[in-house]
């Protein structure tokens, strides 16, 4: 290795570390950084690359994991003639592959796509769709929570890019690491399953803001302010299926779902050209929050409670009756809540010349009949935001609990 190569590696390590701390370098700063790197010791792998998430545990990764900057969502259908035996072997392979990748280890048939990179907080999450149980002869074990979602007026669903026997969520803080995992799982599927659909998303990268902040969506809005937090006393009961197999007010759930959750997946196209025609004031009234910091229009910071009864000098509600924040608030939906963990997406321009962009909406709950469904029904009846979004794909998946060290995801279902 020559001196130029050594200097380049040191420069890359220094730049990576600076990104983690949120340091912004201009042209002069970049030159100074290069000089310092060239004369100092080689930098260790930046924090953003070295961070790992555990694969094994009570819950699967990728649910409570902090949002990652790159993601892939994919659904697979079992091959014709494949059944429970093939599905079991597939879940064994997938779990072993995911565990190695998340530990930063190469696979047996590694492509080298992520060579030199650390694990970068990679997570891989697996779920089962409604049709999986028909294909594997396990219909008696299918939860009622997987009953089809009701139709909504904003739905323009493409069935070819909806649902699926199996679902995979991949997240990482490096685009190549995320793509590497996707390719590895597609290859590991072998002849047992074929890709039904796949979508790619993104979020902010760690360290690009001066302090940790709630992410923004492509409308520029702070998105996820009132998400349940693991520190909340009722977090587990809202997000995860209890070990007893049932929850208060929920239909009984099969024992194999203990520690699991349900993911609702929606590709929501944002009509950005129409949205951008609104004034800032009108945008804020549609949402019910300030665009600058996500705070309610009734005042305070981002985390301030909504004052839903406050009226302005003209006697009208400060947070309009059809504002998105009002209609989706848990107190307006008998406490219904879900953990939203989306990615943004941009798939170029549509045929009409408008951006094909929006949100890969993923939400988690112990029971979608008490989480997503009642809230979406309420939004469907009068949300001001509905004029600017279109739900184009949909999926509902049962995501079992995490794998034991000597097991694999779904073992309690496939080997009762």
Automatic annotation (TrEMBL):
Its EC number is 1.11.1.-. Involved in the recovery of exogenous heme iron. Extracts iron from heme while preserving the protoporphyrin ring intact. This is Deferrochelatase. It comes from Streptomyces pacificus. GO terms for molecular function: ferrochelatase activity; heme binding; metal ion binding; peroxidase activity. Residues 60-203 form the Dyp-type peroxidase N-terminal domain. SUPFAM superfamilies: Dimeric alpha+beta barrel. Residues 214-403 form the Dyp-type peroxidase C-terminal domain. Binds 1 heme b (iron(II)-protoporphyrin IX) group non-covalently per subunit.
